[in-house]
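lol ok so funny story. i was supposed to be doing the assay writeup but got distracted and ended up predicting the structure for this chain instead. priorities right. anyway since i did it might as well share w the group, maybe its usefull for someone
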Amino acid sequence: MSWIHSVLFLCLTLSWCVVVTGDTDDGGAPMDKTEQEALYSAIQGFVGDSWNGSDLYPDPCGWTPIQGVSCDLYGDLWYVTDLTLGLVHENSLPCGTSLVIKPELFKLKHLKSLTFFNCFVSPITLAKEDWINLGSNLESLEFRSNPGLIGGLPETIGSLTKLKSLVVLENGFNGKVPASLCNLTRLQRLVLAGNLFTGTIPDCFNGFKDLLILDLSRNLFSGTLPLSIGEMVSLLKLDLSNNQIEGELPQELGVLKNLTLLDLRNNIISGGLFENIVKIRSLTDLVLSGNPMGSDDDDMMGIKWENLDNLVILDLSKMGLRGEIPSGLASLKRLRFLGLNDNNLTGLVPSKELETLPCLGALYINGNNLTGELGFSRKFYEKMGTRFKASKNPNLCQHVVSGSQQLKPCMMEKTEDGLVIKQTWSNLKKEEEKKDESSSSAMGVMVTRHVLSNGFMWDLLLLELSLLVVLYY
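and the output, tada:
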């Protein structure tokens, strides 16, 4: 009887396998047919009519997935939740040269994320209608590197009230930002950088309590900074650089206690530095360069820089700042980059203090009216290399001769038989090293100034360092 049991067991096994295989061929949990057709049609509009999704990807949410398409189950059916178009990855679907946005795109009713990367090359404007159809679910909308996207940003994008991320980066959009963006109060990231947007920045940020990143850089925004910026209490990064923003920095910026990056470079902001900036103790990057903010003589000295002890990057170049370099900067132990170049700074350079900064890797003080002697060590110059610049300070001199001498050598004094001799530090050192050498080994030209005790002075040109000049009273 054992062989009968074996046969029965084999038959039952085969029967079970057939049933399982049959269920798998049916797709298990199938994709909604209307959803599948809408997906094929939408993609075809971007990659070209020759693309046949039903043949290439008969189960786009299952065993034949499409790169850039993600799905999720709703009930017992699959629906598209994420759609990325463009060559984000090597096997992504490339966009065609003459693409169209088909209305089927907006029938993907469970879509949460939609990204267009380097798709729109030929000029095209986005239609205003249909975007509202995605308002019930869409949380992320991105247009990245699409130079062909021109015209204004559709007003209807403001109806996507569940958006948490809106990235409109490096496209050809222009005109004013639609006022409807003020409705997107759930945003955590708002990036409109690298376009041609004009007009003023909307003053409606009082409702953006969850916003972490605001990047409006590289546009043509004008006018003053809206006071409602201070209402974004969760903000981590604020980048408004490379625009045409004017006026003074609002004191409300000091309320942003979580801010780590403040980049306002290359605008027309004036009125000097504001003291409230030291209240943002979380700052790691403070970039204000290229703004005509210099006004008072104590532009820098009036700021308690030691309070910003988290700073890593401080760029205050090309601002017309006056006064001295504050020694309080030496308290910024995490500082790696310090840019003070092309201002009207005067006084001595706190060399010894700045050299104690353990992380400092770049220092630019060129293009000022600094005076006196640089007291940096040779080791400091070697550490900085080309990342140290001090040139174009007419009354500043340099003791240590580094690999790239940028300043005139400082004059040193020595006394011989009641005679005070002033000459360069480097030549003085050479003279001491060679005082016992033969005169034939010395070459060069040097100008020394001899100052007599009775007040007379004159310059002597020595054609050979070995020439001994004896002066009597």
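The chain has three domains: 27-104, 105-409, 411-462. The chain has a mean pLDDT of 83.
back to the writeup now i swear
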